[in-house]
Specification:
alpha+beta, 6-stranded mixed beta sheet, 32% strand, single chain, 158 residues
């Protein structure tokens, strides 16, 4: 099963917002980066799991796990002229952007902070995309070894 990391700004949408959503489920939409779009369209599948990462906040870090409950479909925000993510070039019969649905699987008791991840960047988490300089993607793959290590960190973080 592939694993992912999904970045969100908690001032826009947080793990608390997801926990309060009906059925603890939401549409993951508004992605406007081609590489991230390709992950959504071509790789993310029902049953995949992802870390939910709060960015642009202090502290930044992983707050829990979500599960994909609906695979890629055309992002409706791209067709809504009143939405911030509207894209006039995206058409329903030829969509440029895609969304998918996630459901909260587990909320961590304590955030695994970016600093905690960085402490292992040269060893156990070498190559983790979120730790690469200049990485700004909102969706990144996470390999199985990194997934397991971060899960262990989530159990030991206070």
């Amino acid at each position: 099963m592939p694993y992912w990391l999904l970045k969100t700004e908690p001032s826009t949408f947080s793990i608390g917002d997801l926990a309060s959503s009906p059925r603890r489920t939401t549409r993951w939409d508004g992605v406007r980066n081609y590489q991230a779009r390709n992950f959504i369209r071509d790789a993310i599948a029902v049953g995949d799991e992802a870390f939910l990462y709060h960015s642009s906040c202090e502290p930044a870090g992983i707050t829990g796990i979500v599960r994909v409950v609906r695979a890629a479909y055309p992002d409706p925000t791209a067709f809504d002229q009143h939405d911030d993510h509207y894209d006039a070039a995206s058409k329903p019969d030829q969509p440029r952007w895609y969304a998918f649905d996630v459901q909260l699987a587990r909320r961590f008791r304590h955030m695994v902070t970016l600093d905690a991840l960085r402490a292992h960047a040269a060893t156990d988490l070498a190559g983790l995309m979120i730790l690469r300089t200049g990485n700004r993607l909102s969706i990144t793959p996470v390999d199985t070894a990194h997934w397991r290590f971060i899960l262990a960190l989530s159990s030991s973080t206070r």
